[in-house]
Amino acid sequence: MAFIQIRNVEIKGISACVPQRIERNRDYPYLSAEEIEKYISTIGVEERHCAIHDGTICTSDLCCKAAERLIADLEWDSSEIELLVFISHTADYKLPSTACILQDRLGLSKQCMAFDSPLGCSGFVYGLGMVSSIIQTGMIKKALLLVGNTQSFYASPEDQSTALLFGDGGAAIALEYNADFKNTIDFHYMSDGSGKDALIVPDGGCRNPFTADSLKMAEDVGGYRRSRLHEKMDGLEVFSFATVNVPKSLKGLIDRFVIDINQIDYLLLHQANKFLCEKIRKRVKFDATKVPYNIDKFGNTSGASIPLLMVTNLSGQLKTENLNFIATGFGVGLSLGSVRFNTNKIICPELLYL
Fold first, then answer.
1. Per-residue DSSP letters for 147-179?
2. Dihedral class, residue 124 (left if φ above 0, else alpha if ψ from -120 to 50, else beta)
3. N or C: which end of the chain has fewer CB within 10 A?
4. Element (H, E) at 16
5. With a threshold of 0.85, does the pTM exceed it?
6. In whole angstroms, how far apart are CA 325 and each of 71, 139, 319?
7. In this structure, how many other beta carbons lie within 10 angstroms of the beta carbon of residue 103?
């Protein structure tokens, strides 16, 4: 099993940004009022912050605003930031790397290492592992992890399995090398590419290049209408993957690193959907008071969901307390990551809007 332990790395701050524009599920025209209420009561999503996908707001814009505010509040000298990692499925371009664009937009040094990683729902946990692994030696002292998605870009308006679920968001996490920091960051990772078709945009890549047929809307056996440029989700497959493997991952993390769950302040679950998350919470026997949610107001924001959850629900405590967390992100890939980490009176600006 892929376990990693990181030393000498401290999280210094977290910020998040969402589009101002709100889509309310009760306004959805393709379901009856009764069907919508059933969806809301089960999945938990009442409204989502969604960009208008005309190129004016991309994931990079949300992450950039979050990063600018975080750098300012930390009073960091941007020239000292030597690593920037951008985790997203919704990059600005096929090429170049969005991280390189953000290095320039944020005014970071040209000596900054910058790269993208195309991960979705597990992106925060994977990104935290990538960045902390690089800076734990002390050769690089300060780094930014930028993670998010404008996932509603891929949702067909006539496919309620995605159109009512996905919201957009971006987050920035500041990490710093600290040889005196006593806490470790502990990880467990897994992946199952045999489940690639459970969450997929079929066309537009090198395997299935864009053609005129990619734009054609078609109805599947479930009655959902989408094109091959829209995201297709097999909800039952994702549900099965998560309910079986997330509890195993969390148990493996706890056992391997001898974590006392009584010392854990919060379990942060990727906000996939409320029904699924509650199944996981009950299986791992965490008290409901230790498992916060914001899915009702933001939906599933993919890789941004965990840092967004921290900003919206726990900002006061993050700024004033020493907190212990376990978090897990899971989804497209299929990919899963779990992590134990600590924060100690970190910088956490209020939620930003664009």
1. EEEEGGGG--TT-HHHHTTB-EEEEEEEEEE-T
2. alpha
3. N
4. strand 9-18
5. yes
6. 23, 27, 15
7. 24
